[in-house]
Amino acid sequence: MAKQQKPRKPHPGKEKRSKAGIETSEHAYPAKIMEIVGKMGTREGGKQVRVKILAGPETGKVMRRNVLGPIKIGDILMLKETEIEASPIKGRKR
Questions:
Q1: Which of 13, 14, 67, 80 is buried most, with the most CB atoms less than 10 Å from its CB?
Q2: Total number of domains in the chain
C-alpha cells in the first residue's frame, strides 16, 4: 500500500528587509557594481566587475564577479552566492 502524500502549499518568497531597506530573498543577495575591471572572451561577450554586497551574511564585502549582458556602474545584481570570487582576467594589457 502506497503512502499518501499531502499536497504542498506553495511558499511565498521569504522576503526580508535589510537595514538599507533593500528587499532580499533566501536565495539571492543584492550587490552594487562599483567598477568594471575588464572584458572577457574573444568577442568580449562578458565583463568582469567589482561589486559590494549590500545585504546578507557578507554585507559590505567587495568582490570580483563575471557578468554577461549590458551593465553600468551603479547597477544592482542579485547574487545567488557570495562566497566564491571570480579569478582575475589574464592576458595582454591594452
A1: 67
A2: 1
What residues contact 80, with CB distance under 8 A and at least 6 apart? 27, 28
Task: DSSP for 67-84, please give it.
Answer: EES---TT-EEEES-SS-
Mean pLDDT by 10 residues, the chain (94 residues): 63 55 70 92 84 91 92 92 84 63
Assign 26 to helix, strand or coil.
Answer: coil
Determine the Cα–Cα distance for residues 53 and 50; give it in Å rounded to an integer: 10
Q: What is the pTM of this model?
A: 0.65
Which residues 6+ apart lie within 8 Å of 62 measured at CB? 34, 50, 51, 52, 53
* Structural domain contains residue 12: no
CATH of the domain at 70: 2.40.50.140
